[in-house]
Amino acid sequence: xxxxxxxxxxxxxxxxxxxxxxxxxxxxxxxxxxxxxxxxxxxxxxxxxxxxxxxxxxxxxxxxxxxxxxxxxxxxxxxxxxxxxxxxxxxxxxxxxxxxxxxxxxxxxxxxxxxxxxxxxxxxxxxxxxxxxxxxxxxxxxxxxxxxxxxxxxxxxxxxxxxxxxxxxxxxxxxxxxxxxxxxxxxxxxxxxxxxxxxxxxxxxxxxxxxxxxxxxxxxxxxxxxxxxxxxxxxxxxxxxxxxxxxxxxxxxxxxxxxxxxxxxxxxxxxxxxxxxxxxxxxxxxxxxxxxxxxxxxxxxxxxxxxxxxxxxxxxxxxxxxxxxxxxxxxxxxxxxxxxxxxxxxxxxxxxxxxxxxxxxxxxxxxxxx
Length: 370
Fold this sequence. Notes:
By secondary structure, this protein is of the alpha+beta class. Helix content is 69%, strand content 11%. The strands form two sheets. The chain has a five-stranded mixed beta sheet with strand order 2-3-1-6-7, sandwiched between helices. A two-stranded antiparallel sheet has the order 4-5. α12 links the parallel β6 and β7. α1 (2-56) packs antiparallel against α2, α1 (2-56) packs antiparallel against α7 and α4 runs antiparallel to α6.
């Protein structure tokens, strides 16, 4: 879904930019046509005034005055067409009012121009005054409202252009927010995949592979640490008696208790089944015992499943690494041997491997390294 939306938003940006460019050229064309039509109208107004004066002085016949009249009529038609197309020009109400008034006055001349009779001087003077007034008004709006960058026409053009810019900005913002969301989703997905790769599906503790990687790295870096193997006693009996779902609940409960206690002081991983490993960066036995005792205190209370009380008992064996380039396999065998000593004796305390002991062979541990 994310990858489908990306090209859609990119296409929306393209359309917004296309609309912006179209709007820009349309506004530029409108302004050019508005200026051109008003300039030509003003020119014809002046020329008509001059021809009326020549007619008044008998220097121009009525036929030539009619031609000028018809030419001026065509310019009014052009400006009216521009006003209909250009909403910004139409919104300059004072200019539109002045143009309508001038057009009505101009239209009133039609009967006298085409009557074939001599036009009275008083009427000619009136026309000249009306045409001169219209010329002044149009010229004022042309200079101050349309051609001027600070005029109302230019401001309206910019506002229209800004609307198109807002569309581009909105589409771009939506696109980049979406891309950010996709990247964040990918980062989260990668993080989830890495977590699943390094953690046990049931308990969410570090899995066997990740635990062994940390152990091997600690050995290669000659770190000082303690390796503890922890076994949940009589777990098979729980599975056989109450079923695997009950066993899974117990493992989840135990793992949550690990997280509250000893996992805060190192790494706890599940080796498989009911066996766990704890790597803590200290060689002080008292510190290790103290943290392990906190775990036992948390497990002292019964865990209830389907009305049955379960008291979780652990056996733990530890081996200390003093940073002398140890073999991970040997450390695991030593800790495992100590753990079986604790299980054999029934002790709930950590059993510590002694250098003069021979590690017991454990087929399962051997499988971890081969």
